[in-house]
Structure formats: structure tokens, C-alpha cells
Amino acid sequence: MEVKTSLLDNMIGVGDMVLLEPLSEESFINNLKKRFDHSEIYTYIGSVVVSINPYRSLPIYSPEKVEEYRNRNFYELSPHIFALSDEAYRSLRDQDKDQCILITGESGAGKTEASKLVMSYVAAVCGKGAEVNQVKEQLLQSNPVLEAFGNAKTVRNDNSSRFGKYMDIEFDFKGDPLGGVISNYLLEKSRVVKQPRGERNFHIFYQILSGATEDMLNKLKLQRDFSRYNYLSLDSSRVNGVDDAVNFRTVRNAMQIVGFMDHETQSIFEVIAAVLKLGNIEFKPESRVNGLDESKIKDKNEICELTGIDQSVLERAFSFRTLEAKQEKVSTTLNVAQAYYARDALAKNLYSRLFSWLVTRINESIKVIFLYKVMGVLDIYGFEIFEDNSFEQFIINYCNEKLQQIFIELTLKEEQEEYIREDIEWTHIEYFNNAIICDLIENTGILAMLDEECLRPGTVTDDTFLEKLNQVCATHQHFESRMSKCSRFLNDTSLPHSCFRIQHYAGKVMYQVEGFVDKNNDLLYRDLSQAMWKANHSLIKALFPEGNPAKINLKRPPTAGSQFKASVATLMKNLQTKNPNYIRCIKPNDKKAAHIFSDALVCHQVRYLGLLENVRVRRAGYAFRQPYELCLERYKMLCKQTWPHWRGPLFKLEDLRKQRLEDLATLIQKIYRGWKYRTRFLLMKKSQIVIASWYRRYMQKYFLEMKSKMPSLSPIDKNWPARPYLFLDSTHKELKRIFHLWRCKKYRDQFTDQQKLIYEEKLEASELFKDKKALYPASVGQPFHGAYLEISKNPKYKKLKDAVEEKIIIAEVVNKINRANGKVIKCHCLIPKVSFFLFQGSGAAGKGDFLFSSDHLIEMATKLYRTTLSQTKQKLNIEISDEYAIFLSFLKGCVLPCSRLSDGKNCFPGPSQVWL
Ligand SMILES: Nc1ncnc2c1ncn2[C@@H]1O[C@H](COP(=O)(O)OP(=O)(O)OP(=O)(O)O)[C@@H](O)[C@H]1O
Ligand SMILES: [Mg+2]
Fold this sequence. Notes:
alpha+beta, seven-stranded mixed beta sheet, four-stranded antiparallel beta sheet, 25 strands, 45% helix, binds adenosine-5'-triphosphate, binds magnesium ion
């Protein structure tokens, strides 16, 4: 018997924190640590999985492990991300519930790795087959592509996601994947032009330069040396343990699997090369007559050749800026600083638009027409605190606040409120609700102020924005600023004047206000987008549709902040419609190192994630909750005893349901099969009637036609009408046979007894002589008379007649050959019923063997044969041959016939033998 591991068997520490005794922050951290030290990185809080980044590869994701966790109950085996994936997949497949996997944690905690593990587990356990496998591969291989273009090395994580990703995997009713949709959230595009110390640009830049062949680099007009490119940071261009060249091959392969055509891949790399080349454009000032400086591109840059943009068009776009109002068009020159700004804005836009295009292109490959069930996997950029935090960090952290909010809503708030609503005795468990921070950022708060500033006429700077914040948010508990109207922070020297600080759920973050307005506006000078649209490069042209002069839109595009807010709101709505599964990732140390568990760091995360509160609610609450309607919907099929109340254990209900489902399936099968076969039978019956009526119709027609075409009744008439229909072939032959037999019978029925006798004899003759004797065919037409001598009439034969008392069957004159000398003598031959007489002229009968010839030999032999058979009941031994050798024996003085045998010997007739 299979021995199953119980959750409590051989468990290191406590696998489910709900069972932890006593429960305290200390015991919680100790339990995590103990398990972490024994490579147990997963721990449950009820159905929530807490995952600690091991920073080393563990042998716990093998195909054997997948099999181990496949179709097992959640608590049956030790905690694992596969158990959560299995639970989510099975409830999607078996209970038709759309699922979402919410993976949260700060940067470097292991969210992206967790999302890939979930996807690979689901891919391993769901259906197989060529088509399904291709879909799976495309879904899985979208990860390396997006990671190459959207991830980068940061000080917190060597493979940090610099964009938010939500992927809906779509399944059919059997649970086989059909495809998916990826949504991406605001890429940190500022990284394209500048990276903080110790960080890198997006991986793809380094991958191309390291992994492309010389030929490819030549085509892209690139050089392998990173130091040639201003946009690539040099101090940390290599990442430990990462081989960019190998990764480049992986990415190219993945692009191929996802469905990128070769020319598309080439275009994508050309855009990447163009971005690198943009970074190398330098400007010099050139004085103009009006005394202002105008920027000019210093050296010729290969970007124009690469992208097919006219050099003069690009140069002009970097020297002038055209402002268009309704009827006016004003052109101003750009100074060198503005030209650099424009260059960087173009590079950032080019890259981020390429990234969005990539996502759209992948979606095209994996899109599904019919949607049945969905599993969403959310992997966003984690909460982060850097030395210098800007607009990007603000957006990233806002997104994390929203996710924390959804977790609080669903696990802490709603459950407690439900117990109170249901009048269940309940002691409220305190927790920190970060709704207040979300409110500070989105509704009447920072993002709204930022948008207001961006849209306001007049001089708008980052400082005016900060001023505004200082007024509006001054009294907010989570907002801190030196210049706020609230005097609390007047003397806080750790807070520079150009910054504001937010107390996030995960810690305080100080944001440099510089760049907020600009990044929120996200404006690209129209001259630049028009220059890009003029590129002789279909991809670049497609990335800048607004550059088309025919489609000039003077309306201001929505700000980056409001766009992000709207897409996050949509995401939250989407997540709320699905059954959530949580993976809460924790970072054990700040060194990206294995085996180090920093109590303080973990404790901080446990606190802000609200994990302890989570355990408390789980311990005090019910193990299982379900809205009444869903419960009724699920179990109403069982029986009257389960409705409307069931007092037994819940799992029993599930077992009963399973059994009932099988019974119902059998019933449905039975009814279906009955219906199917009955329908088939009725159809066949109907068809049979139709076929039979047509058949009868044709048969009738056939017989009527045959009636008019019947051949003569002569048995030797060979005519027979042609077959009218192929399907009557055998009938037609049979009819011919029957008709022939019938007309033969008819013919025979006309015979008198005398004729019958003659024909019997003729038949006998045929059996004896047909095909044996050459003279036989000539005899067929001659009737057998028998009485050739008319002995009763001729007085000459009176004496003869008297000698033979019996009835004579043949009487004629034959030529007897004398055996002694071969001479021929005429004799009378009479064959009565019982004996055989041969009379010579003298009247004396010869004795012994004799030879004779006759004109009625066939008749004679036949009659002789018949007489002998009827008298003696023995067949006369007749030897038939066309030729005999005649021996005239002078010794004995007789003639003997003999036949020549194959060995050349002669054979002579024996006693009672007739040779003919
Ligand atoms: N389960 C795991 N097993 C082994 N190593 C892991 C695991 N999870 C994470 N790591 C290591 O930690 C690194 C960071 O993980 P990951 O990129 O998933 O973090 P993240 O939470 O997505 O961070 P960010 O928010 O910056 O994107 C990985 O590159 C990998 O080296
Ligand atoms: Mg990540």
C-alpha cells in the first residue's frame, strides 16, 4: 500500500503557521528560520504560501516532485509552491473557478522565479498533445523574451523586473491550455539612458553585444565593446554567474518559438542598435544671428543608415521644436541641453514603445478566440527603496500598495466583517490597513496633484509641484516634507528640501521630486516623432503612429501617472473577479547570498506583510468558508439530507459529491447512449423504408420490362436481355438460370412415353460417348429406331423371331469381320432384352469374341449397355476409342483388336468387355 506523508510527519518546525504554538512574532520568525536552515523554504499560513528566497538552486523542482504533488490534497505533503499551483489548477479545471496567483514581496524576494515555477508546474500537469505542447512552449518561452527586454540588474536583484506583468493563461473545458494574454505595466524606461551606480541597463543590450556573431554586429553597425556606448554603464556591465552570450542564444531561440519571424527579430535588434547609437549622438552649440545658440549634431551618426532616416530630418528634429496650436505653428531652436534632453526622451520612447510592441506581438501569437477558464499570474516589480528614489519608484511602490490592499481586503478585512455580519462571536484582530496610503497617492493625493500641475497653464516645475503637495498633504499621517505646512518635519535634516517622504506599508521611502513633472508628462517633441515616422524602417514607423502628419492630434495624451492608475484599477477589478491564491515572497538577506537569514530583515517583512495578523485571523476563523449560493450550487445535487443543512464533516460532502458526479455521469451517458442508438435505429428504419420502396419500384419496373423482353421457350435459345441495373446483377443471372430450367421442364413435359424413352437412351448415349467418340456428334440428330429389319412384318425373319422370344430392342444388319482372314460377312444382329444374338446367313450364331461394324453403332452400344444394366444390374465394361490396331493372327487364324498403351505394349480385351 502506498504510504502517504502527512503534513506532520518528519516536519521541520511547523509547516502551517496556523498550528504554531505559542504564536508570537519571535516564534514565527524562529519557525521560518528553522525551516530555512533545513532548506524548507515554503511554509503555509492556511492556504497562503510564504516563500523565502534560498538564493541557490534546490533539488525540489524536479519532474519527480511534480509527479509527487500532482493531484494531491493541499495539506497532504510538505508545503510547496507546487501544492498551491496544483490546488489552483484543479479548482480551475474541476470547479470552473477562474484563478489568480498573486505573488508579492519586495525586489529580489523571488516573485519572478515563483511565477515561472507556477507556470511550469501547470504546463507539466495539464493536457498533452502536439498542439497543446506548442501553446505551452509559447507561453513559457515568452518569459525569457520579456525578461531580456524588461529586466535589469539592480542593486537589489541581478534580474530585477523593471515592468509589471500580468499573464492570463487560458484553458479549455478539459483544462488544456489554449493560449493567453499578457498585460504589461509601465516599464522603467529612464533606465535606458541612465542607470544608478552598481546597476545595468536592460539585459538585451549586453546580450546582443556579447552574443551576436561578427556578421550580425556588422549588419547592426555595432561593436562588441560595451565601453563604446554612452548608455551602457560600465562599472557593473558584467553580472556574476550570468553569461550574456548564452542568454542571447536562449532569447533568440525563445523568440523563434514564440513566433517571431526572422525579419521581425532583425528589426527588433536594429531598434536596439538604434537606441545605443542615439546615446552616442553628441551636440555642439552654433550661434545664430539672433544671439541664441542652436544645437548641431557633432559627428555623423550611423543611426540614419541603420533606420533609414534622412540625416537632415534627424538633425532638424534635434535643432528645432515646433509648437502647434489650433491655427498657429511656432518653431523654436533647441540649445545643446535641450537637444540632449530630446535625444534621451527619444531613446526612452523608442525602447519603451518597442517593449510594448513586443508584448502585443507575443499576444498575437498566443491569443485565443474562445475563452473558457483563466488562470492569471501576477508578477510585478517589487517594493523598492533606493538611495535616490524617483517617479519610477513612486509608481512601483504605489502598485505594491495596491496589491497589499487587495490582500488585506480579501484575507483580513472581509473575513472579519463577514463574521460580524453573520453574528458569529468574534474578537476583532487589529491590522494595519494601507487604504489610507493608497488614498494619499491616488484619489485626492499625490498623483492627482501631479496631474493638476502638469495640466496647469503657466510655469510648472517640480518645485511648484512639491509646493502644492506641501499644501494639500501637509496633515496626512503618511506624508512627510520639510516644507509642509505641518511643522513636524521642519527640523528633520534627514529630509532634504527637494524631497518628500511617504510612509509606505513596507517602510518609509524618500522621493526626489526632480523629474516628477517631466516623467509624468512623458512628452516627446512632435518633431521627433515625425522624424521617426519618416524612417524607412517599418517597425520604427509603426512605433510612432502620431508622427504621421495626416493624423495630427493636438489633444494632450494622458499623463503617465493617470495611465498607470487606470491600468492598476483595471487590474484590481480583474483580480477581484477571480479566486486568489497568494504567494508571499520574503527576502532572507540583503546580500543576495545563500544560507544567510537576517532576523531583522525578515521580521520587517513579516510585519509589513501583515503575516502574523493573517495567522491570527486564520486561527480564529473557520477553516473553510463559502458563500451560501456557491455551496448550494455545488452540493444541491447530493440529496435531501444535505439540503439545506449538513451537519457532517465538509470533506465527506466533497467525497459524496465526487461519487454523485460519477453516478450522474453514468446516468447522462446511459441516456445519451440510449438516445444516440434509438435515433440511429429510427433513422435506419426510415432509411430502410425508403430504400425498400425504391427497391420495389425498381424491381417492379425490372420485371415488367423483362416480361416484354423474354426470349423464346426453346431450350437452345441463347438469347437473354441485357442487365438493366448493376445492383440486379445476381438477380438477373439467377432469373436466367431459373427461366432456362423452367423452359427445359416445359419442353420435357410435352414428351410422350415413347419420346421419353428415346431421349433417355439419347441421354445415356451422350453420357457414354460425348467427347469420346468421333462419330458421336453425327449420331445425335439420328433418332434411335431399333427395328431396322422389320422382323415382325417380313416373313423372311419369322424363324428368327421365333428363336428370340423376348422383346427385341434392336434388329439390324451388321458387317461381321472374320478374325481368321479379315473378311466381312453380313450378319443380322438382334438384341433382345436378355441376350445377344448374331445371326449369319446360315442362321448359326458365332461363338467367342467377334468384330463387327455397324451404321448404328452408338445406338447398338447404348441399348446393349442399358439392357445389360437393367438385366444384370452391372455396368457393361465398354472401352471407347477411335482407333484400334487389328492383329491378324495367322497362328491361331484369328483377328484381334487391341489398343496401344502408353508404354508401347498392346492391350487385348478381357471377358465381357466391349470395345468400340
Ligand atoms: N526558488 C528559488 N530558487 C532558487 N533561487 C531563487 C528562487 N527564487 C529566487 N531565486 C534567486 O533570487 C533571484 C531574484 O529573484 P526574482 O527575480 O524572482 O525576484 P523578484 O521578486 O522578481 O524581484 P524584482 O521585484 O526585482 O523583480 C533570482 O534571480 C534567483 O537567483
Ligand atoms: Mg521580478
